[in-house]
Amino acid sequence: MYTLEELRKLDLTKVREEIRKAEKDLFKIKFEVISDQSKSNHLIAKNKKYIAQMRTILGDGMGTKEDKPTETTNTTKS
Q1: String of b and e for 35-67 (b: at least 16 CB within 10 Å)?
Q2: Domain ranges, residue 38
Q3: How many domains does the chain have?
Q4: What pLDDT score does 60 carry?
Q5: Which of 8, 44, 53, 75 has its CA 20 to 30 A from that of 25?
Q6: What dihedral do alpha carbons 23, 30, 1, 17 form, nearest 10°?
Q7: pLDDT tens-digit readout, 13-30
């Protein structure tokens, strides 16, 4: 897991990869808790928070310039 500062320094593609990895881990942890293989149910909330932080960074556009989508505005008048 990266710290918040480290996540903000990553480009958006790396953040997306980290989100996919964290979502897979979350699924695995949920399955283990439900099937009584693990008692570490606190990791569910921890992973959810981590995923939310990464999604917030994606929403803020805190990545490199080439990863940001370009916006087009319609300037024609009707």
Answers
A1: eeeeeeeebeeebeebbebbeebbeeebbeeee
A2: 4-61
A3: 1
A4: 77
A5: 8
A6: -10
A7: 999 999 999 999 999 999
